[in-house]
C-alpha cells in the first residue's frame, strides 16, 4: 500500500511560565493512500498537537518541533519554510476543526469564501471559481447551491455550516484531509450525516483522512485503522477490528471497558486517576500509576514496541517475553 504520510519520532514542546510541556513525545504513525486513520485519546493527550505539527501550525514560540520527521509524499514538512508550507496547506493538505462557526467569516457570503479558497492558490477566473464552488456545495449535499452561494454563514444551520467548511477544505482537491473533532459540536443525528458525508467524499475523491476524536462511536463508524494516544505517545495502533476486538494495551482496554462492540455508540469513559504531568513526564510507561497490571519495570523503562501483526503494534511490558517469564515465575512462587 502506498503511504501518503509518515510521521517518525515526532517531538513537540511548549514553553510556558511554569516550564516546558512535552506535549508530543516520540510519535510514530503512517497513513496509507485512501484510508481513514482515527487518532483517539482523552483531551490533552497530544492528538491535536500532533496534527497541528503535520499542518505546520505549531506557533513558535511557545511551541517547537524538537525532533522527528513528517514525510508527506516523501517530502519532510518539518524542513520547509513557512512560505512553502503555506503553498501545501489548503492545497495538498486541508484541515477542518470542531467549531464550524469560527472557521467561517460571518461578514462574507459563502460563495465569496469558497471562491477565495480556490483563487488564493490557483489562477482561475471568477466564473471558473464560481463553477467550482457550486460543484463543491453539491458534493457536500447543500440543496439549491446557486441561491445558497449568496447567503451568509448565520443563514445556515450548524450541520450545514460544517458541510460548507468541508466544501472549503476540499475546493483545491487536497490529497489529505485532517479533521479535528469535526462532529463534537453537532448533535447526534447531524453527526451521523457528517460522518456519512466523509465516507461519500472518500469514495468519490479517494482522499486520505486523519480523524481526531475522543468518541469511539465515530471511530467505529468510519475508521480503517486506529491509533490510541496517551500522555504524548501513541501506545497502540491497529486496524479497527484489532483495536476493538483484541485490544492489548491496558489503557485501550480501559477506554473500551468490557466487551467492545463495533456498533457501540459510547463516549470514552474516564479511567480512574489522571494522566501524568507532561512538565516532567515519567521515564517509563506513562500509564503506570493507573495500570492494574503495572510491574516494577514499568515505571523505570519505557516498553519496546511489540509487533503483534503487520498492522497491530503496542507499547506495553506485558507483551515482552521477559516480562511474561517474570510474571510466570512470580505466580509460581506465590
Ligand atoms: Fe501497564 Fe506496565 Fe503495560 Fe504500562 S507497560 S500499560 S504500566 S503493564
Ligand atoms: Mg483537541
UniProtKB/TrEMBL annotation:
<dbReference type="InterPro" id="IPR050388">
    <property type="entry name" value="ABC_Ni/Peptide_Import"/>
</dbReference>
<protein>
    <submittedName>
        <fullName>Dipeptide transport ATP-binding protein DppD</fullName>
    </submittedName>
</protein>
<dbReference type="Pfam" id="PF08352">
    <property type="entry name" value="oligo_HPY"/>
</dbReference>
<dbReference type="InterPro" id="IPR017871">
    <property type="entry name" value="ABC_transporter-like_CS"/>
</dbReference>
<keyword id="KW-0472">Membrane</keyword>
<dbReference type="GO" id="GO:0005524">
    <property type="term" value="F:ATP binding"/>
</dbReference>
<dbReference type="InterPro" id="IPR003593">
    <property type="entry name" value="AAA+_ATPase"/>
</dbReference>
<dbReference type="GO" id="GO:0005886">
    <property type="term" value="C:plasma membrane"/>
</dbReference>
<feature type="domain" description="ABC transporter">
    <location>
        <begin position="7"/>
        <end position="256"/>
    </location>
</feature>
<dbReference type="GO" id="GO:0016887">
    <property type="term" value="F:ATP hydrolysis activity"/>
</dbReference>
<dbReference type="Pfam" id="PF00005">
    <property type="entry name" value="ABC_tran"/>
</dbReference>
<dbReference type="InterPro" id="IPR027417">
    <property type="entry name" value="P-loop_NTPase"/>
</dbReference>
<dbReference type="InterPro" id="IPR013563">
    <property type="entry name" value="Oligopep_ABC_C"/>
</dbReference>
<comment type="similarity">
    <text>Belongs to the ABC transporter superfamily.</text>
</comment>
<keyword id="KW-0813">Transport</keyword>
<dbReference type="InterPro" id="IPR003439">
    <property type="entry name" value="ABC_transporter-like_ATP-bd"/>
</dbReference>
<keyword id="KW-1003">Cell membrane</keyword>
<dbReference type="GO" id="GO:0015833">
    <property type="term" value="P:peptide transport"/>
</dbReference>
<keyword id="KW-0067">ATP-binding</keyword>
<keyword id="KW-0547">Nucleotide-binding</keyword>
Amino acid at each position: 500500500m502506498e503511504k501518503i504520510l509518515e510521521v517518525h519520532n515526532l517531538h513537540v514542546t511548549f514553553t510556558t511560565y511554569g516550564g516546558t510541556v512535552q506535549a508530543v513525545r516520540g510519535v510514530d504513525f503512517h497513513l496509507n493512500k485512501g484510508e481513514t486513520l482515527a487518532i483517539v485519546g482523552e483531551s490533552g493527550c497530544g492528538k491535536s498537537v500532533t496534527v497541528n505539527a503535520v499542518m505546520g501550525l505549531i506557533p513558535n514560540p511557545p511551541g517547537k518541533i524538537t525532533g522527528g520527521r513528517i514525510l508527506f509524499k516523501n517530502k519532510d514538512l518539518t524542513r520547509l519554510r513557512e512560505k512553502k508550507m503555506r503553498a501545501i496547506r489548503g492545497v495538498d493538505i486541508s484541515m477542518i476543526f470542531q467549531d464550524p462557526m469560527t472557521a467561517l467569516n460571518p461578514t462574507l457570503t459563502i460563495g465569496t469564501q469558497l471562491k477565495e479558497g480556490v483563487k488564493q492558490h490557483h489562477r482561475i477566473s471568477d466564473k471558473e471559481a464560481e463553477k467550482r464552488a457550486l460543484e463543491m456545495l453539491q458534493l457536500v449535499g447543500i440543496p439549491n447551491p446557486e441561491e445558497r452561494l449568496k447567503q451568509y454563514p448565520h443563514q445556515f444551520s450548524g450541520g450545514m455550516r460544517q458541510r460548507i467548511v468541508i466544501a472549503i477544505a476540499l475546493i483545491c482537491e487536497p490529497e489529505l484531509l485532517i479533521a479535528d473533532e469535526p462532529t463534537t459540536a453537532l448533535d447526534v443525528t447531524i453527526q451521523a450525516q457528517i460522518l456519512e458525508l466523509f465516507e461519500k467524499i472518500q469514495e468519490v475523491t479517494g482522499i486520505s483522512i486523519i480523524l481526531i476524536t475522543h468518541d469511539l462511536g465515530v471511530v467505529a463508524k468510519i475508521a480503517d485503522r486506529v491509533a490510541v494516544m496517551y500522555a504524548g505517545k501513541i501506545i497502540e495502533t491497529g486496524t479497527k477490528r484489532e483495536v476493538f476486538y483484541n485490544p492489548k494495551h491496558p489503557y485501550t482496554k480501559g477506554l473500551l471497558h468490557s466487551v467492545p462492540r463495533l456498533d457501540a455508540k459510547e463516549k470514552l469513559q474516564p479511567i480512574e486517576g489522571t494522566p501524568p504531568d507532561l512538565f516532567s513526564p515519567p521515564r517509563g510507561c506513562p500509564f503506570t500509576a493507573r495500570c492494574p497490571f503495572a510491574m516494577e519495570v514499568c515505571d523505570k523503562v519505557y516498553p519496546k514496541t511489540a509487533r503483534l501483526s503487520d498492522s497491530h503494534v503496542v507499547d506495553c511490558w506485558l507483551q515482552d517475553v521477559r516480562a511474561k517469564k517474570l510474571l510466570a515465575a512470580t505466580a509460581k512462587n506465590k
